[in-house]
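Section 3.1: Structural characterization of target chains.
Under the original work plan, the team committed to producing a structural model for every single-chain target entering the pipeline before any wet-lab resources were allocated. The record below documents one such target. The sequence was received from the expression subgroup and is listed exactly as submitted; it comprises 681 residues.
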Amino acid sequence: MSAPRAAEMESRASLDPLVLRRLAQVSDARGAADIVLVWGAIWLAVTIAVLSGSAVVWACAVVFIGTRQNALATLAHDGWHRLICRDGARNHAIGAWLYAYPIGIPYHHDRRRHLRHHRDVGEPRDPDWLNYSNEGRETPLRLGMYFASLLAGRMFWQTSASLARRGTPRIALDEPASARVDEMPLRGEMERILVAQATLFLLMAGAGPWWTYFVLWALPVATFAGFLANLRAFLEHCAPTDDVGAGPRLHDFEIGWAERLFVAPCHFNYHALHHAFVAVPHWNLPRAKAALMVAAGGSYPLEVQRGYLRRLIRHLAEITLVAAPESDADRGGRATTATAESQRSPELQLVAAAKSQRLPESRCVVDCGFCGSAEHEPVTGWLVDEESAGELPPAFRDLTFRFVRCTGCGQVYMRERPSPRDLDVFYGQAYKCFQSYDDRGPIMAGLARLVARGKLREIRRAMPPGRRRLLDYGCGSGTWLDLMQGLLRGSDDGFEMIGTDVTPGPLEDLRRRGIAAFCCDETTLGGVVEPGSVGVVHLFHVIEHVPDVDGTLAALYRVLAPGGVLMGQTPNTASLGRRVFGDLWNQWHVPRHLVLFDDMTLRRVAERAGFEVVSIRSSLSGATQWALSALLWRAKRRGREFRGIHEPLYPPLILAALPVAALEALVARTCHMDFVLRKPG
């Protein structure tokens, strides 16, 4: 590492020389244990696959051996720093023959390359710059294609082609190897790699079929091992732009068992710590971190990322937004609004003037509506209505609200709420749920029709015989009812549709389209819908808005026929998106969202109302919240008004965020959860 960079690291992380000397002690016994553990796991996987004769077991063995080959690469890295054993010659022999050559790494060549990486990290002259710069990976799509190509063997084929054409690896050093005894010409290393591969071929052919080597060794080396090693290297050094220096690129990672197995074995997640103290063996890095925290007075002076997956998701958001130019709509939004105001009729201008002078009533402070406890802990800081600030009277724009968690039952709710007399301000005609998807552009309209088709299939399957009536409770402007009415036109498999909402304004258009619509809440629903007359209730992003969740579910339970189903969607506070964006998560949506759920609290309140919980699952529509939360972050970063669903980048960002939501659904929970509840009978 260069002198300026070393000084920068030392200014952030320093240890007493005696402590550092103790931590830097190399252990021959621990080095031997690493050999036994990694190679023992590999040969155990080979043995199980050969003895099983099952294609599924062989496939699992390919993946598992790929993770252990990734571990071999990390242990070869320890060899480069002379951390395997105390004897230097034996250290490099083990690093080369047991770790590097079996996975095709020219040990001595790549050692010189790696030491230059430590010296020049973050600079284009770094030999590894090719592995973590943004060239060819500037957008989420290109980055996804890059990672897909790694899984398809990109590194193997590029290295093979480079060796065939130039006689050098994909990343080759321009200076010759030194005359030191522990280094050798590249040609000699390639010959030794071939010897290692031939040895593995003979050993595996003796353990199983002759092709065992190709399936259980060559295949994972070319695919999974290369993918995992390069994914880790990219995420440990990436930045949204290539003009970022070394400091912001160096992080440690807090990881769980899955990322420890697949991505960062052998304590490789202590990446910044390793750059600061290269003489500390991997197994002593956790102790070095503890010592560093003691030296720093209890705090850890190095940057820490919360896992490789979260770093990937954050990087996707950064490369999407940081370089995105501000659009004409961004720059001209306020001018357009002013023009619209000037074109209003005199009567509307008087109403707008009166509204602009309106003052808010005193806020209400509530306790937990589920267990009655007043004890709570904060979940968010104080939040303002970011999404509709330009549409609110000036006196309402600085009102702050916060979410808390009840310490008695774990429910998350908004403790300080607007007065019921002020709800018309926050649910005005411009509120997004009262707007048609057709007015939001072709991408949003197309996505809405696609989702409506899926909803219609589910409703038809859930509709009990003899009760062919759908109630859309909290229908807003009736967007979903209107879409389903269009899909049902000319069909023999239709059903009666009813819409209800607490706001009367949007319902008039729905009635004109021939759909029955009523203004009511949970206390008056029974007066417009007969008990036991509804087959399916649609509750799309409503339950989080109602002040009395228990009362609402009880009213819907009464109008459902026995065997009837309630189908809904609501935000999920246990989602990865909520943890990534924190207070900038768009689904706080103050002050309209009053109660927010996770899987456990939603199940509890549904069962208390008498429902059977059929399913609670993550929804890909959570991609919308990745898009909106990222756009909110962008707006605050640029110091401008957040325009919510009217942001020009919102529709294309949803498409870009769909792979993120799909990955999120596999490994965690998405920002939205779909739930299906059934009334027994």
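Residues 239 and 622 are 25 Å apart (CA to CA).
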